[in-house]
Amino acid sequence: MTDKLIEVSGITPEAHFPKCPPNHPHTQFCETDKLYIPCPNPSIHEILEVCVSVVVCSNKEICTPIGRKLVINGKKQIKVKFSTNDPCQPFHCAHFEVPFCTFIVLGDSKQEVVQICTVVEDIAVKLLDCRCLSVTSIIFLCPILKQEPNCPPCPPCSGHSDSCQQHIPYNHCSSHYQSTTKKYHSGSNCSVCGPEEVIMTDRHYYYGK
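^ SipL SPOCS domain-containing protein, sequence as received from the core. Prediction below:
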């Protein structure tokens, strides 16, 4: 059992960072998620690859004593490929969706939010035992604001299309991300794994049939 030579993908290249001017509204956070591979799925011999992507699902603006805040609901999509000691199934993959909720202070600005840019700054992976690993990710989010007439344009987000999510009117049910115990169905189409479900309990995530 080892976690050496893990290929990590999903970190945003510096060339695709949004060009935020000084004091531009933003937020950033670091989270560590424990991911579990339960029986009867094969145990981990060696982690081969971990991929992390960020999706903004919904957002809304609220009024607070310090001005407007943009509340953002999203999810981290984590894909783990690993080798096993099972000769009949030497390689396996698992897909996880980890929800998050954060906010950005907009203050007294009246400008409309037209886009939300996300940046994955760093990813760290550690194999804890043959069925458990931790994935730590540092994520940065910032809004692109609609410019007032006669104002110089704000530098656009230059990220990939899958890193910059369009502003979504808040008409989704946010309770999906507020429960401490939920089931999340994976979008895996792996012929080896087949469809799985991911179960979250107190920030511990499991996947299985």
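Residues 7-13+23-147+155-208 form one domain.
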